[in-house]
Amino acid sequence: MPGPVQKYSGSCHCGRITFELESALNPAVRCNCSLCRRKGAVMVTAVPGTFRIVSGKEHVTLYQFNTLAARHHFCSACGIYTHHNPRTDPTLTRVNAGCLEGVDPLALEAELIDGASFTTVAEGG
Fold first, then answer.
1. What local confidence, expressed as pLDDT, does residue 101 receive?
2. pLDDT tens string 16-51
3. 43-45 and 94-96 as β-strands: parallel, antiparallel, unpaired?
4. Which residues pair with 77 in a beta bridge?
5. CA angle 118, 120, 122 (to 5 degrees)
6. Whole-angstrom distance, CA of residue 69 vs CA of residue 83
7. 3-state secondary structure (DSSP) of residue 37
């Protein structure tokens, strides 16, 4: 059951990117796609329309792979993944819970998204 929606602030490791959002935190999610498996982040979903970069927009770097549908954002200075727009619903913003002030991402209950089973672009295609 989702928790209460609250306002949160966050940043990348070096603090160049700061942001705010509203989220219920639970249920948090983890994904087993090739990228998420490597970054190991616990992600929370922002209430649509509430995620906002406060400062450092010029340091936000985009990474896309495979179908290019998902948009993964990270800091160009410290390399920390801050948020992404998932391929299953690009209007959503999922945020790295480890970047949120006062939130212990390892204490959140996280559901698994089976991203490893999503359709991929064939080699050479």
1. 98
2. 999 999 999 998 999 888 888 898 899 999 999 999
3. antiparallel
4. none
5. 155
6. 14
7. helix
Q: How far is CA 83 from the centre of its chain?
A: 3
d(CA 110, CA 114): 13
DSSP one-letter string for 60-114? EEEE--TTS-SEEEEETTT--EEEEE-TT-TT--EEEGGGBTT--GGGS-EEEE-
Question: Among all chains, which residue has been given the structure tokens 């954002």?
Answer: 73
CA distance 34 to 104: 24
Q: Which two tokens stand for residue 23?
A: 């989220």
Tell me, rounded to whole angstroms, the distance of Cα 33 from its chain centroid: 13
47/122 Cα distance (integer angstroms): 34
Sheet holding 28-31, edge to edge: 60-63, 71-75, 81-85, 94-96, 43-45, 28-31, 110-113
**Which tens digits make up the pLDDT trace of 59-71?**
999 999 888 888 9
The pLDDT > 90 percentage for the chain reads 65
Across-strand partners of 95? 44, 83
